[in-house]
Amino acid sequence: MASSTKVLVIGSSSLVGSHFVETFGDKYDISAIGRKNIFGDGKLLSSFERIDLEDRERLAKAIRSSDAEFVINYAAETNVDACEAESGNEKGHVCLTNSEAVALMASVCKEEGKRFFQISTDFVFDGTNGPYSEDDPAGPINSKIGWYGYTKYLGEVKLNKIAPQGSCIIRISYPYRAHFDLKTDFARNIIDLYRKGKLYPMFEDQIFSPTLIDDVSNAVDFLIANSAEGKYHVASKYPTTPFLFASELISTFFGKENEAEVKRGSIVDFNKVPGRAPRPVRGGLRTDKIQKLGFLPKTFEDGIRTIFKASTSLGH
Ligand SMILES: NC(=O)c1ccc[n+]([C@@H]2O[C@H](COP(=O)([O-])OP(=O)(O)OC[C@H]3O[C@@H](n4cnc5c(N)ncnc54)[C@H](OP(=O)(O)O)[C@@H]3O)[C@@H](O)[C@H]2O)c1
Question: I want to staple 223 with a disulfide (CB 3.0 to 4.6 A). Which of 44, 172, 228, 309 is the partner?
Answer without folding.
Answer: 228
